[in-house]
Amino acid sequence: MCQGTDDDREEMEEVLQAENPKWGTPEWHKQNPIFGTDFSKSPDELIENIRCQLANIRGQLNDISRGYPGFGDRLNDAGGTLTLCISYLYHVLGDLIKLKKQEK
Question: Is the pLDDT of residue 31 over 80?
Fold first, then answer.
């Protein structure tokens, strides 16, 4: 039976760690996104995409509140909460863009 040296074993461990990042690290999460996030996109693209999705949901809630007036007050409150999220993410997006420019 052929056995490798300690150097061979260390090299193999390094290769395995590079291919399989440690669980819980940012690299691991990028390879295993729970909600299907496309990490090939930049963080600012991802945030802007989420903002657009939230705006679409807010619009749908508005449509429902107009079509079913009995739910209007509750749905308007939910729409207001989404507006706060959209606005907050706008500021986060601005911070990401500033960081991106500073890195260049």
Answer: yes
